[in-house]
Amino acid sequence: MTTENMVGHDIMALDARVVRATISVVSQAGPADLTRPTPCADWTLSELLTHMTAQHDGWVAAAAGDGGNLSRWQPGPPAADPVREYAAAAGRVLPRSVPTTCSTGLSVMDQIVAMLGRSPSWPQ
Question: Residue 4: inside a domain, yes or no?
Answer without folding.
Answer: no
